[in-house]
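Run folding on both entries below.
>entry_1
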Amino acid sequence: MTKITILTLSDDGSQKPLVVCHLAADGTAICEGDAAAVKNLSEVGILNTAEAGKKLFPKDGAAFLAQLKNNFASGYLSVVEEN
């Protein structure tokens, strides 16, 4: 996977991109979109479901991208992977 889009459900039932993350040439992940969500990903990180108690951050690159789908699956958020 080279690009992950986190979608949010709008009041009218449509989905719109909240954050788009992709791998940079240096192997880190770059996230763009909603400023608050991007800041949260960068500063708080996401849970690494493969290793209990550990967090991943955009600096962790492909591992971070792989775990996004496990952290953002709900009725209001979904993740789309693109290669």
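>entry_2
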Amino acid sequence: MPCILKAGAELIEFNLKRRGRTYIVEVLADKENGGITISECSAINKGIFYACEQSGVMGEDFEVDVSSPGLDRPLKTPKDFKRVIGRNIRFHLGVPVNGRQEYSGTLRDVREDQVIADTAQGLMELPISQIQKAVQIIEIE
């Protein structure tokens, strides 16, 4: 979507839903290092709305909702993890690693198929394929 690129952002998630006769285009967009602004979301929204209107594919009854995924967005891909190196993360694993399925710690490195975290149990190498859920721990000072 050119309007997302123009805003210097990237598409995180795209959903097309239908509520009655109304199509709803839901877009999550963010910048590589986070921090997309409300005005940038608004510009993307206008761009997508205009493209949908011009194409006519959804008729005249549609809505566009563009938002930021927020600080607590789930981390899924190596790119997501690289964005938060040095921050505290909570990991929930599908299968135990060293007898545990949950770890919290500072993310130190990201490799193609694993993350390295400094946890209370020591330096852990956790396979990305086994991470069911990972989120940044938000610390309020």
